[in-house]
Design a protein that fits this description.
2 domains, alpha/beta, single chain, Rossmann fold, 7-stranded parallel beta sheet, 10 helices
């Protein structure tokens, strides 16, 4: 399989390139970064610490798409929208791990992505996707008797908050409880906020150092607390998931997918 990586000079991009270079079923044929990035024109392998692989970092997504089967995108919300649109026009598969989309941007991705094979997931690790299922089951079982709080922690360079994974956890829980997240989501607290409302779903973000990604969901009631936690020790788990998603997606019919589909964890209604 020929893959291209968008955001190739970033932390996730370099990790994906490194693992893809060792994968027996993959060939790296393209690498993307924004036009003014200092890595433009440099060999993607050298940027990722692999040595020269003969793949220069480029800025034209359509030129890169010509020579690949799947584009793996960890860039920025605006760039991802453009990349999914280009992939849909050219009939290429695209895996999107970018987070921080506005509602409008996510709608654009869903519309364009549905015309090709498009997988969008805020977190590609198997552990986190299992966590989505566990918190859904817990929320349904515990229901209104437990307060729900989500705490996420990431490195100091992360631009969006809360994380896409924390937002997904809140979404999964609110759906399981039959609540509208727009009405019950509380993102940080400060000052005289008053007594906690029973329906609230709290989401708190911590930033510091080189934390790869920690997510804890707490179900709290009088006398006890249940905590479900996932900690990422390195970016390898996310990169492996992205490569697994790319291999799976290439053989699927057109449509929108997520990691629950890849891992066979999706709960069928």
């Amino acid at each position: 399989m020929r893959i291209a990586v968008s955001g190739a000079a970033g932390r996730m991009g370099k990790t994906i390139l490194a693992l893809a270079s060792e994968h027996p079923e993959m060939e790296i044929t393209g690498a993307l970064e924004w036009a003014e990035h200092p890595a433009q024109g440099r060999d993607a392998g050298e940027i990722a610490g692999l040595g020269n692989i003969g793949v220069p970092i480029a800025s034209d997504v359509r030129e890169v798409l010509k020579n690949c089967d799947v584009l793996i995108d960890f860039s920025s919300p605006a760039a991802s929208v453009e990349h999914v649109r280009a992939a849909s026009e050219m009939g290429k598969a695209v895996v999107v791990g970018t987070t921080g989309f506005s509602a409008e941007q996510r709608s654009e991705i869903d519309e364009a992505g549905s015309r090709t094979r498009c997988l969008v997931a805020p977190n590609m690790s198997m552990g986190v996707n299992l966590l989505f299922n566990l918190v859904q089951s817990a929320a349904r079982a515990l229901n209104v008797d437990y307060d729900v709080e989500i705490i996420e922690a990431h490195h100091r360079m992360k631009k969006d908050a809360p994380s896409g994974t924390a937002n997904k956890l809140a979404e999964v829980i609110s759906q399981a409880l039959g609540r509208d997240l727009q009405d019950v989501g509380v993102y940080g607290r400060h000052g005289i906020v008053g007594e906690r409302k029973p329906s609230e779903i709290g989401v708190m973000a911590v930033r510091g150092g080189d934390i790869v990604g920690d997510h804890t969901v707490m179900f709290i009631t009088t006398g006890e607390r249940i905590e479900l936690t996932h900690r990422a020790h390195s970016r390898n788990a996310l990169a492996k998931g992205a490569l697994q998603a790319a291999l799976w997606l290439a053989s699927q019919p057109n449509g929108l997918y997520d990691m629950q589909d890849v891992l066979g964890l999706k709960v069928r209604k």
